[in-house]
Amino acid sequence: MTLxxxxxxxxxxxxxEIMKExxxxxQDERSRVAVLKYLIEQGYKISVIKTDRTPDQIAxxxxxxxxxxxxxxxxxxxxETK
Length: 82
What we know:
This protein is of the alpha+beta class. It contains three helices and four strands, in the order E-H-H-E-H-E-E. The protein has one domain. Strands 1-2 form a two-stranded antiparallel sheet. Strands 3-4 form a two-stranded antiparallel ribbon. Helix 1 crosses helix 2.
């Protein structure tokens, strides 16, 4: 199962600022989801979609419908942008 979070650039920027301030031991998927849930609770507009599709499938489908999209894939301690 994949959780897909859809939001705007301003909320995404805030998300990354919060993540940057967390200690390295909290730079995992569980913490990222917790921060996103916190932002939702604070009233930020974030759509959450649960799917059986892989993140790569989701990104390919989004490109078909919307053109260029941002897709951030966490790979070790590097961020790989597609």
